[in-house]
Amino acid sequence: MDSQRKTPVKKLILFISAALIITACGNNQDYSPKPRGYYRIVFPEKAYQPYVSNCPFTFEYPKYAVIEPDKKPDAKPCWLNMQFPQFNGTLHLSYEHILSKKEFDLLIEDAHKLSFKHTVKATGIDEGIIRYPEKKVYGIYYTIDGNAASSVQFYLTDSTKNYIRGALYFQSEPKLDSIQPVLDFVKKDVDVMIKSFKWK
After folding, report:
1. Is the pLDDT of residue 126 over 60?
2. Residue-number span of the structural domain to which 129 is assigned
3. Exposed, middle or buried by CB within 10 Å (0-12, 13-18, 19+), for 124?
4. Which of 13, 43, 45, 143 has the smallest count of CB within 10 Å of its CB?
């Protein structure tokens, strides 16, 4: 008698199990993980303004950037941080007044070393010559490819008494695939800054 009562329950459990298996197997589509998504970035309109100060140089910079004096304890006059708040990025600018040929050579060597120290994470480094003789602006632009902490570095000089070095950093884990659109956008601003740069 008890076994006859249990039979409908067993049949129900078997029916539900079979239905679940059929439903699960009925979808023949292969599962593949979806690629990681990134936040949609809204870029501001390109617009520039002159940087005016007591420093011995001027340049154009974007209206959506903020320039502040470098607040590090060892910062010198005319060491600046061009902040891109919406992108969590900073272009660090370090100015030096050149007092001798030896000091000039050391600054050029340091710029090269500081750029190439990123080779651990970089997939490649390209050097481009900067040359605007009519403004006495000369230098080298380093493009650092891969997941390096800094993707853009450069220096500008008049070859006699003035030198400035720039390095672009983003305050996030360096993953090129996620910051590439922002990097391309900000690189254009760095290009405008360099092309408009003048010694006073």
Report:
1. yes
2. 48-199
3. exposed
4. 45
